[in-house]
């Protein structure tokens, strides 16, 4: 009861902030299904500040979330990949949400470092810059030099941020559960899963060892690749609340003036970026989930360097195969194949109409694919595809939503670097090679061999289970004639069960 009262009080304060910013507009959209919600949304507009009246809904929402603090900024970033939930225009505005806060004192930063490593800052760093180079809702970054002479960046969590985020996450979970109870139609949009995704992001961002581990994995995936640079993690100076990594010195990917001045060719960089994106998604199934220009730098030798590994995405091999087939079918304008892929992947329930889904896919694909080559946006195509999910009872695929957001960011950066080119055309040879390697006869034979090997690994366990079940002394302790009869019946039953066990 006390927990519910605390949540209600906190919710009332949040509601007031949202109303003052004109950010309760989603309630008005529920008017047809829930008149009371529409009435509350309309009434809230009367509380909106006049200076915000001319702003777009998404910008007002982003402003309100910033005012509410770190947890809400993170919520906005997660919602920015849910165009199916909030609409494409609002999602685009939330994607621009700036995660910036005034820095906390350098004395606190030094205190945290000393507490984490139980030694003075001077024993770890010969120089530590007290003025941070970046300050966000969860952490801030200082440049430093290690005692062995290496230039590094040191990321430090804000004091007390873990407790504040835990409190807000408990509130978000409470709201999501009530939403699913009171509005059954919202279950398809998985509000509880959205909060769970947010909790996973926060768990990584508030344990910097997890972020460091993600960065290390990405670095290993591109070891020996001359086109990319992932900074090295200094594990001896990394803990749950402090992460130290190699300092990146380069030009922001969107600073075209500086790139031109440095003699760096935009088209070459864009082709490299397309390859970088493709290899992450299809080759590795592990990709950077926040590829905005602030996280991408171009080094003097033209290599692409990436930082900030708090939001990373994963795709299993089967999902990558489905995704490749879907993209190939869209680009070939084979909308029947697009529909078949969605049904085969289980993204669309079997009780839906394949011809109607193919028709919907055509209505999305033709306006986009009919544009000049340099204007084709696969990210936008996926975003519109996700918008038709309600019509076909298609469940949300969180991993694909993050991928779609990353695609849009990558395409936006590519257009800045070379407005006349298309990253998908440049990556097409890689796509074709990967498709042959993973969908051709040899790949199918290798897949069948893996399945056979897995079958053989399970076989001894299954046979052992069968032996135990058919042993009259162990399975059915029945004596005389009844024991043999039960064993025989059990053996017949277990032969049938064996297929289930092995399958």
UniProtKB/TrEMBL annotation:
Transmembrane segments: none annotated. The keyword Cell membrane applies. InterPro entries: ABC1_dom, Kinase-like_dom_sf, UbiB, UbiB_bact, UbiB_kinase. Pfam families: ABC1. The keyword Manganese does not apply. Keywords: ATP-binding, Cell inner membrane, Cell membrane, Kinase, Membrane, Nucleotide-binding, Transferase, Transmembrane, Transmembrane helix, Ubiquinone biosynthesis. Pathway: Cofactor biosynthesis; ubiquinone biosynthesis [regulation]. Residues 96-342 form the ABC1 atypical kinase-like domain. PANTHER family: CHAPERONE-ACTIVITY OF BC1 COMPLEX CABC1 -RELATED (PTHR10566), PROTEIN ACTIVITY OF BC1 COMPLEX KINASE 7, CHLOROPLASTIC (PTHR10566:SF113). Belongs to the protein kinase superfamily. ADCK protein kinase family. NCBIfam families: UbiB (TIGR01982). This is ABC1 atypical kinase-like domain-containing protein. It comes from Tistrella bauzanensis.
